[in-house]
Amino acid sequence: MGILPIILSLVFPACGKPGAEGIKPPGLVDFKTLTLPKTPNKALAGPANLGAIATISAPVYPVPALKLYDAVQQVAASEPRSYRLDQYPAQMQAAWVIRSATANFPDIVEAEVIPLDAQSSTLVLYSHSIYGASDFGVNAKRVKDWLAQLTIILKDH
């Protein structure tokens, strides 16, 4: 870790910590009742019937839910500076901390896979900043990138 995160940690404590250290796990999330912050530093992808307002439409994947859950884990593991924060396999939910390269700012990505039937599933993918009101579009880009990676991974299944 460089000097910038150490200096920033005087104001933003989690910037001076490695990995998921210093970040409170979100716990099990009910995305149907989730209240989004008014700030633009978040992005939410989900199915049309999601109670919380999804800004990005999540596709239906022609795979069983467990296969999609495994693919989400694979995408998260491939993300630079990604650290598992929370996991609930029985509910097919997980969360990660993603750190920025320069300042070590933490964002949280939360996912829940939703089975639709035995051979199809969709998901909720929520990426949000811990600090600041703006994210310069980073969270929306991340969500779109993860959805694109999932499509590629699951293309041949």
Would you summarize the structure shown here?
This protein is α+β, with helices and mostly antiparallel strands and 157 residues long. The protein is built from three helices and six strands, in the order αββαββββα. Helix content is 24%, strand content 27%.
Fold topology:
Layout: H1 3-8, E1 42-46, E2 56-57, H2 65-78, E3 82-88, E4 93-99, E5 106-117, E6 120-129, H3 138-154
Parallel strand pairs: 1-2
Antiparallel strand pairs: 1-6, 3-4, 4-5, 5-6
Helix pairs in contact: 2-3
How would you sum up this structure, described in words?
This protein is α+β, with helices and mostly antiparallel strands and 157 residues long. It has a single domain, classed as Alpha-D-Glucose-1,6-Bisphosphate, Chain A, domain 4 (2-Layer Sandwich), CATH 3.30.530.20. It contains 3 helices and 6 strands, in the order H-E-E-H-E-E-E-E-H. The protein has a 6-stranded mixed β-sheet, with helices on one face. Helix 2 crosses helix 3. The mean pLDDT is 93.
Structural class: alpha+beta
Which stretches are poorly predicted, pLDDT < 50 over at least 5 residues?
Answer: none
CATH top level class name: Alpha Beta
Discrete helix count: 3
Indicate the proportion of strand residues: 25-35%
State the helicity in percent bands: 10-25%
Q: What is the CATH superfamily label?
A: START domain
How many domain units? 1
Key words describing this protein structure:
single chain; 157 residues; alpha+beta; Alpha-D-Glucose-1,6-Bisphosphate, Chain A, domain 4; 6-stranded mixed sheet; 3 helices; globular
